[in-house]
Amino acid sequence: MIKSPAGLGHLLAREEADELMRERFREMYDILPQAVLYGVSAFGTRLALYSLSRMAAGRLLEPRRIPRDPTRVNDEVPPEERWAIDVFSARARPSLGR
Questions:
Q1: Three-state SS at 14
Q2: Three-state DSSP class for residue 51
Q3: Are 90 and 81 in contact (CB under 8 A)?
Q4: pLDDT given at position 97
Q5: Neighbours of 15 (CB within 10 A)
Q6: According to the model, what pLDDT value does residue 66 have?
Q7: Cβ neighbours around 17 below 10 Å, total
Q8: Would you say 84 and 46 are in contact if contact means Cβ atoms under 8 Å apart?
C-alpha cells in the first residue's frame, strides 16, 4: 500500500506502515514458495525495503522491529530514515536492483 507522502512526518503513520508490513509477512510465511520474500512500504516516492528469510536458522524479518520501551514514546517508532530510498533519486537504482 502506498501512503501519502505527508504521513512520513507522523509517528503514528510510520508505526502503522511498519506493523502492516510485518503483519503481511506473517500471513504469507506458511505459503512462502521461495527462501526469501521481499516487500516495499511506500510514503509517496519514498520506499522502505523489507525482506523475510526462511533459512534453516529460522525466519528473519528485516529491518528488525524496534523494541518497545515503556518509559519512552518516540524511540520505538521507525524513523523517517527507514524510508530513505526515493524512487526519483539516482541513488535508488542500486537498492532497487536487488
A1: helix
A2: strand
A3: no
A4: 63
A5: 14
A6: 85
A7: 22
A8: yes
Q: Specify the amino acid at residue 46.
A: R
Amino acid at 35: A
**Contacting residues for 35 by C-beta, under 8 A, at least 6 apart:** 53, 54, 55
Distance CA(83)–CA(25), nearest Å, equals 18
- Angstrom CA distances, 64 to 6, 87, 89, stand at 24, 23, 25
Buried b (16+ CB within 10 A) or exposed e, 21-58: beebbeeeeeeeeeeebebebbbbebbbbbebeeeeee
Give residue-wise pLDDT tens across range 38-79. Answer: 999 999 999 999 999 877 566 788 999 888 777 777 677 899
**Grid coordinates in use for 75?**
524511540
